[in-house]
């Protein structure tokens, strides 16, 4: 059964964008922030999570920038990898 609720993906991307925006030391040219924002806007256009989050996961610049975030517990790389695997199905 396919899930139609994009809430979790939007929550991850929104929090990631906020944390990237708050850290002024990294991503000074806004490349990663722009890609995250474009990914967020494409979620409602019926693109698969595998495609959207795969673009983030496969981009070395994005993953290095995310790993440089100054957070107590940085779960973004794990969340992106999980959503890129196509975790859009629920088993009953």
Structure, explained:
The chain has 92 residues and is mostly helical. The protein is built from five helices and no strands. The chain has helices at residues 7-22, 31-42, 49-58, 60-67, 76-84. Helix 3 packs across helix 5. The radius of gyration is 13 Å and the shape is globular. The mean pLDDT is 86.
| Distance, first to last CA | 8 Å
The dominant shape is globular
| Structural classification | mainly alpha
Q: What is the β-strand count?
A: 0
The biggest beta sheet reads: none
Poorly predicted spans: none
Number of helices: 5
Report the mean per-residue pLDDT as an integer: 86
* Share in helix: 55-70%
Integer-rounded radius of gyration: 13 Å
Name the helix and strand elements from N-terminus to C-terminus, one letter apiece: HHHHH
Residue share in β-strands: under 5%
Short characterization:
With 92 residues, the chain is mostly helical. It contains 5 helices and no strands.
State the main characteristics.
92 residues, mainly alpha, 5 helices
Layout: helices, strands, pairs:
Blueprint: H1 7-22, H2 31-42, H3 49-58, H4 60-67, H5 76-84
């Amino acid at each position: 059964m396919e899930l139609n609720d994009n809430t979790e993906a939007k929550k991850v991307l929104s929090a990631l964008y906020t944390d990237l925006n708050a850290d002024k030391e990294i991503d000074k040219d806004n490349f990663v922030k722009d890609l995250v924002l474009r990914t967020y806007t494409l979620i409602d256009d019926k693109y698969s999570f595998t495609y959207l989050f795969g673009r983030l996961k496969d981009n070395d610049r994005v993953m290095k920038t995310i790993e440089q975030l100054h957070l107590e517990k940085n779960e973004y790389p794990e969340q992106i990898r999980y959503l890129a695997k196509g975790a859009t199905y629920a088993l009953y």
